[in-house]
Every structure is written in structure tokens, then in C-alpha cells.
Amino acid sequence: MRLKYIHGVSAKITYRISHELNELNGITEKLDYLAWLGVDVIWISPFFVSPLTDFGYDIADYRAIDPTFGGLEDFQKLLEKAHTLDIKVMIDLVPCHTSDQHPWFQEARSSRDNPKRDYYIWRDGRDGKEPNNWRSLSGGSSWEFDEPTNQFYLHSFLKTQPDLNWDNPAVRDEMKNVVRFWFDMGVDGMRVDAIWGISKDPEFGDDSPNPDFHGDPEAYGAFIHDHCKMGPHFQEYLHELASVCDEYDDKQIVFEFYPDEKLGDIYQQYHRVMKAHPKASAFFMEYRQDEWHAEHTGQKIENYLRAAGSAKPFFCLGNHDQPRIASRLGTERARALHFLNLLTPGVSVMYYGDEIGMTNGELTAEDIQDNFSPANSVIDSRDLERTPMQWDDTQFAGFSSVQPWLPVHANAIRTNVLTQAMHPDSLLHLHRRLLHLRRNMPVLQRGTLEVINTGNGFVLGIKRELNSERAYIYINFADAPQHFFIPEHTEIIASTRPHRSIIRKNGQLTIPSHCGILLLHKGKWLNSRP
Ligand code: GLC
């Protein structure tokens, strides 16, 4: 059986989305809304037992739910309701590190000959200092000295997140069993967190300096990560993990993956990941680079699809680690990119609240909760994109009846689900229209994608084709109206701007700045449309 969400849309939901309920029940309560919107897969951030030093990405028990989020019965109810509504459920797998509170690590650090010692990565210091120059993504060295056994342990993220040693077959078996545990419970897929560190240089050589970096010489970006990640067993271990899907008919794995240009051809890296296994995929995260360029965007999409081969594409506009798209690009450009993202093949991933154009929170240093933010700095803090979902214009935006852990954005007074649901021209309704179109038009689900020459460098043109059906998507990247030729016998089906602002004359279209438009070739589908 093929997965239904091959053609679906996934919504990333983090934390509580309802008041007086625990987080999982809050999500369950809002599944009807997601079904109304047309979402058919949800991806939920980690809700496992955790001291929450990295909001759940520091797991102390992979098989139990943290009471902050609810209990196992709550999760089972969530699964049941989601499946009744035809919504699939993906959860996070965090396979490359645990919490330092995990019993494995507690045992491992107790003595050098503890059987769990080799679950983690331990090294002697070099001249009394860290074993090498590897940097943690959350700042500082990746090595932490552990007094009781007089050795350093490796942590690619916070020091409360010690790296697991994937070269140990017992660790690989543990993780495969975690995947089986949740798949057996009915979970449909897993987003695999921070997978690039699954294999490292066995010699633990120093990372090379990055000649293009001119900031703090100790920063993560000051190095090319040619030793600390994507080591010789990278593909082999990915394959092993993804092979668990083979034991089931309809499960999916998607790897978190940010291509690293310094490590060679980025699409080759995609290729290596996505070719590794047919039920495994990797996210397309290129939009986060915010390069606003018609031709380059088209090339990136085509290259990614080529690299994906037969794997399912996962086009991603944002997540809990990236500034909100509406803040990055501005409302109009973001709207155009949403339009594009919803009309590309595979799974179009959106982050909660993006469908109403939520922007980065307005936070002060005192508000910051994320331990990745250096010295509680607001700039670049991931808390900016993690503020509560804006349901309505009440005090806590319908999210909670008490002050939530991050302040609700002041713009919730206008930017909220309830208000936009009442306005047919809203971003929310645009999402809903496109999601329902996708469902009903096979060419948008299964059609091939080809970037076409529009004769206008500011306008990206995309043709989707399936048998005799053809759809054309155009995005105007310019700050001014643009015109371009369009194929004959086509009809405008959807656009980001009112139809009256679009002029069709002598085989050409003139569309406003940052406008997206969908045309359909007048073929079989149009004639049989209800
Ligand atoms: C991933 C997660 C991020 C987390 C990190 C460490 O990048 O998306 O939120 O902090 O891994 O697990």
C-alpha cells in the first residue's frame, strides 16, 4: 500500500494548542480544524520523558510520555481520532543523542568498564584540553569533561545531550526497537532528528578551518565540518535505520537534513540520503536561505526532485528551528512561496500558524527559554518562532487560559484563525483552497514537474503534467507587475491576488508583484469538474 500522504501536507505542531488540556489532548481537540483545513499528516515534536533542557530533544525515556504533555492513553486517543479523520501522525525520533538523565548515560558515566560506557563517545583529553576542535551547534566545544571517570564525552548539541555511539551495534538495535515500538502503536512515520552526526571520523581528526568565515574563531561556522559529521558509515547506518520501514506496509521516515555546501555537491548529499532507502526521504530546506530569485529557486526544486528519485519529496517552508517565513520574507513574498510550496509534488510541510501568516514573536531577553540562545540573546533565538498558536483575539489568543511559557504576539488581535476564517481572501482560506485542489486534482498529486522558460527572468514557471492533464504555476519574484506568455487553452484556477488584478491579453498574462498563479490546461479534468 502506498502512503496516502505522498500527496499530503504535514503541519508541524509544537506544544500546547488548547487551554485547560495537556498538550496532547490540546492537539487532539484541534484535529477537526486541521481536517477542515485539508491537512492530512501531522508531525509532533518530541513528547517523551525529558528534563526539557532542549524542549524535548533531550530524551530520558524513549518509550514513555512526559507528564507535561500527557500520558500514553492521551496519545492513543490522539492517534485514534487522527486516523478516523484520515490524518496520519508522524513523531520525532531523536537517535543521535539522549538526555544526560537517561539511565544509559547515568550508567555509562559511572565507570569506564560499565557495559553502557560504549553507548556514548568518550575520549581522553589532548594536552589537558578537549580531544579535538569540534564545536557544538549550541555553542562552545563539543566535549565536556566528566570528573568521575576522568574523560571527555562528546555532545554535538547541549552538554545535557551526550552523543550516542552509533558504531556500537547495540545502540543501533536500541534505536530500531524504539522505531518499532511507536510503529506498532500505530504511528505512521518518523521525522529523524539531527541525523548528520550518525557517523563521524573514526580517527577523531580536527575539523578544517572555514576560510570564508570572519567572525568568532571559536564559532561553529568557523569550521568546515569535515570530520565531526557524515563519516564513512553515514549511508550504511541510515540504511539500517530506514530498513525498519520494510517490516511494515505503510510507514515512512524523513530525515532532518540541511545540505552543507562546504562538504561538496549538496544535491549529491541529498541523493545519498534519499537513495539509501525507498521509504526514506530528506527535507528540502532550501527556502530557508531566503534567496529570492526565480531562476535559482526553480533550479533548486528541480535538482532536489532529481536527487530524490523515487523517494517522496518533503518540501519544507519552516519549522521550530527557523525564523518564521512571514518575518523572513514579508507578507506578500511569503504568500507567494506558500502558493508555490503547496503546488509542488510530494509532501508540503508547513509550520503551525504559518497558514495565518504568524510572524516571529516580540520577545525580550527575560522571555527567552531556549538554551541554544547565547546569553539569552533575543537575536537568532529559536523562541521567536515558537510563540503560542494564535486561535482568536482573546487574552492568550485562545491558546491558554493562563500566561503561556512564551508571550502571545500582540498581532494576535488581527492575525488569528477565527478572524481569517471569516475572510475569504485570507491566507488561511488560500491554504484551504489549495489543499482541497491538491486533493482533487491528480495532476497536482502525481504529475511530473518541469521548470519552463517564461521569457521573463523575474517569473518562475513550472509545468506539472500527468497523462493529458497539465497545470502551470507562475510566481512573479519582482517588486513590480510582470508579463509573460502563457500556453493556449488554459484557465486560471487559483492565485494569491484577486483575479481583477490579473490581465490576460494577446496570449500574455500580466500579474502583480509577488503574485502566484495556477493555470489549468482545458482538458479532461476541467470538463469533468463538478
Ligand atoms: C534538531 C531539532 C532541534 C534540536 C536539535 C537537537 O535540529 O530540530 O530543535 O534542538 O536537533 O536535538
Automatic annotation (TrEMBL):
Listed A to Z, the keywords are: Glycosidase, Hydrolase
**Glycosyl hydrolase family 13 catalytic domain residues:** 22-386
Q: Does the keyword Hydrolase apply?
A: yes
**A UniProt-annotated Pfam family:** Alpha-amylase
Which SUPFAM superfamilies does the annotation name?
A: (Trans)glycosidases
Q: Where is the signal peptide?
A: none
Q: Which residues cross the membrane?
A: none
Any GO BP: oligosaccharide catabolic process
Family from the record: Belongs to the glycosyl hydrolase 13 family.
| Descriptive protein name | Alpha-amylase
Give the species this sequence originates from. Answer: Candidatus Minimicrobia naudis
Taxonomic lineage of the native organism: Bacteria, Candidatus Saccharimonadota, Candidatus Saccharimonadota incertae sedis, Candidatus Minimicrobia
